Amino acid sequence: MVSHFLLLSGFLSCGMNQPVETPVVLEIKKGKLQRLIPWQAYPADLPAPDTTYADCYALTPLADAHVHLALDGVDFAAARARWNDETGMHHMWQTNLESMARAGVLAARDGGDRQGWAHRLAAQMDSLFYIHTTHPAYCREGGYGTAFAHPLGRNAMPPWGELTTQIRANGSRHLKLMLSGIISFTEYGQVGPCQFTEKELSALVAQANGAGLPLMVHASGAEASALAASCGVHSLEHGYFLTESTLTQLAQKGIYWVPTLAPVAAQAPAYPVAARSLDRQMQMVELARQLGVPVVAGSDAGATGVRHGFGLLKELELLGQCGYSPLELLTKVLRHTWQSLNPDLDPVWPLPALNLYRQPPWQKLSALSADLITILWLGDDEIARTTLAKSHLKFSPASSD
């Protein structure tokens, strides 16, 4: 199998602590990174490297840990109406993936939809994207979440063992639970009651762990967030109005926190309460950084005002306003993000792909949106590059070595 040698101006992986900021050659074989060779010390007995991208800075692909691919981020009602239109759903799915690619986002963890569209369509797609889905998610009958989840009976202990077995069998990669309601944009601090008890959630955590299904839990409010942390869930989604003591638990237990700043930021101009809620959430993210909480980038893409792909760039920008440097975001935060999808992935080389930029985004985060040139897909036998056009995503051979 032939190795490919790529000369680049610089390179950073989320599995690294520091970037390579001098010209470097990447040796890639069978889609995997073999080694980094400083250009100044490049051995004469190796093949001449491909210099097509010698002026580019490479970054391993971005990942979004909280999306809804059955929604478009533009019009919630119109997107839901497409759930009864298979042709419309296929078109929206492709549009959402194209939007992700134009932002350099090649991986995502989907939070589910009631009809399982994301789960079905992900199973039908090719391997260019790494999408984790689940179906169904669960909520309580009468509680928040019926647009995304299957409602369970009000009073009895849910049959978690049976449900986790079914979910595992249908190819789900994780399990999603609605523990609270959503935050109000008109009444500060209001999120609705907890939908499950400590006994019920603890039983689900045990079953999910036994089935190898990471449990992502939608929870906001001090009570629900604390309950999720105390029961040891895999990831706390949202977590608005959580407390410092809950952050301490998250840090001690290594529970991922996905603070989803982007959807509330999108509503903040129209709703003063949303702006106030966002300000508090960002203060807690800053504290989480200081406490060592494994904060994860999840944009809630598909929510109104949050487009797929570019919503993650906004989420990273907002996390940067909480004290994270561009380098921290592209290493520590993105490493946590990839690990929240799959802890077995190699953080140095999570996918056989590279994002190429005109400027190094680890120096200036705005390069993620302003300076993305192309994405290289590194297959077993060839390298393909993307054409990042507005209306389509094309793939063409980048070299014939």
UniProtKB/TrEMBL annotation:
Tell me where on the tree of life, at the top rank, the source sits. Answer: Bacteria
Q: Spell out the InterPro entries in the cross-references.
A: Amidohydro-rel (IPR006680), Metal_Hydrolase (IPR032466), Metallo-dep_Hydrolase (IPR051781)
Q: Which GO terms describe its molecular function?
A: hydrolase activity
All copies of the Amidohydrolase-related domain together span 63-330
Name used for this protein in its record:
Imidazolonepropionase
| Species of provenance | Carboxydocella sporoproducens DSM 16521
